[in-house]
Batch of 2 targets.
Target 1
Amino acid sequence: MIVSRLAFPLNLGLRQFSRRVAENPSNWKILQRHMSGVYFRSGAIKPKPEEMPFGLFAIFCAVIPGLFVGATISKNVANFLEENDLFVPADDDDDED
């Protein structure tokens, strides 16, 4: 259902774009400029870009400190809210039943 809701505006936009290109051929340059990163002027496909050798390591170096910083900030905010009686968790005494 979500895909069908997204497909209609995309299809409509594609139809409008193709009409504009048919009306004015200079609009075709916009599409060619967008695709220039993939193909050479001759039409040959450009080679695959170089990959970063430690890509996964770099991701871990960014994600793990981010998680620790986020956890520290949320812990400090929770302590601040509890100290100032802005939010105090309810004590559930369900264990005594």
Note: The longest helix spans residues 55-83.
Target 2
Amino acid sequence: MGDLELLLPGEADVLVRGLRSFPLREMGSEGWNQQHENLEKLNMQAILDATVSQGEPIQELLATHGKIPTLVEELIAVEMWKQKVFPVLCRLEDYKPQNTFPIYMVVHHEASIINLLETVFFHKEVCESAEDTILDLVDYCHRKLTLLVARSGRGSLPEEEGSQDSTPMQELQKQAELMEFEIALKALSVLRYITDCVDRQWSVPQPTQLTHSKRMQCLHPVCCFLSPGKLQQFEGGRWQTVAPSEQQKLSKLDGQVWIAVYNLLLSPEARAHYCLTSFAKGQLLKLRAFLTDTLLDQLPNLADLQGFLAHLALAETQPPKKDLVLEQIPEIWERLEQENRGKWQAIAKHQLRHVFSPSEQDLRLQARRWAETYRLDVLEAVAPERPRCAYCSAEASKRCSRCQNEWYCCRECQVKHWKTHGKTCVLAAQGDRAK
């Protein structure tokens, strides 16, 4: 695993074996918090293993012990909690916490899981080990891509204004909205890795086959993401207009989109089942404007896509098929919704009383565990780029002197961010001294 090691092989095996799904009511509980910490350790170790290219035991353990379906269910469960329970907590007038970090950990849980899946889904055997839940994961990615297209159309992310009148819960809502966008980008990468397995999924019998209607449902938002408009790029936590001199340079995100579209359109099995309606044809032909010589030099395989689109332009469209179609449907979201329908307020009030109102002593103990989980040397090693300011997202060179966890570009940003960071900072520092 390299010189920098977070988990020993035996520890990783124990943590993976212990992964399980939690009811929505138990999110934020002591057992759930322990699993969240374990997931963060597995997440960081998986990134370390991939970075040093010395075998990747985390992805092997997840596939061997059949834990990918567990992660997919946890991912969708926390997505539902954020949509159904979190807004109820934010509306409760009698709930005015001074420290929102316990809730933040639940909000952040979705980002932790999708980041781990992005790391391990690079390997096709992990994708195959998802079994029936691959449909639920594709459905999840479709929801996130739809969000991504909608927000890219707006051209910007919601900004943290740092208003002095904002309550801690309002600040948490802003953080959750910003986090949602980056989760959508991770989902895009996961979808691209799933499309790498298209041929395998068509070649095996049900129930593990990824049906064509569900895969093609994802195609429309992916193509819309590439539709014409002012060229922008997501960098430093926000959309930025790309300078003309840089517009021909292929970014990692662009590459993921093109590979996903290539896999979805040029798979012989997918093309055999795809109904070419006039609307679908119009959407796909928009891609031709972006297939420039410069792009083809960077991704030569796209020449096949260019040829396919040239042929498509001359092809006759087809009316929607009215054949009887039997296919699997995703079931995790629907099952969780049925189990909890009408209980959202009861779940929120239960969590308010038993989970999200900890004592000062409980917060200090939790802060100590957070400090042990998020080791600075590991965090710096897995960081994909230089640290960013916690307030304005600019490149940062100064770290909070008290807790050593947050980075800032200047003193002014640190002062503005103190209202959000202050309570957590004090607790983290106390927890570190208590060790």
Note: The beta strands are 232-235, 238-241, 398-399, 407-408.
